[in-house]
Known about the structure:
Layout: E1 2-7, E2 21-28, H1 39-45, E3 49-52, H2 55-69, H3 79-93, E4 112-113, E5 122-123
Parallel strand pairs: 2-3
Antiparallel strand pairs: 1-2, 4-5
Amino acid sequence: xxxxxxxxxxxxxxxxxxxxxxxxxxxxxxxxxxxxxxxxxxxxxxxxxxxxxxxxxxxxxxxxxxxxxxxxxxxxxxxxxxxxxxxxxxxxxxxxxxxxxxxxxxxxxxxxxxxxxxxxxxxxx
Length: 125
């Protein structure tokens, strides 16, 4: 599952008064476990929940959404620790070709992990 909460109009010089957020959630079924019986019907009722059959479909949709919204800042729990590492590893393993849309630069090579003994660090190639 991947969920986003997007704030389009952020005041960089002080508090942000606009409380209009866009949110969406992407989910996939586990490989051997089907969705609950009424899940798809309930997900269709919610405009911001989309269900996918495979991890590849979910990650491709995530990359497309990220590219569509083009955020200036991403905030996530442990993003620089293990989340980005797991995400890039899964994208690489599934051979998702447009992975570079996560950022703003078109890259042909996946960034390599910098092994310096500290927290996960990714360096461009």
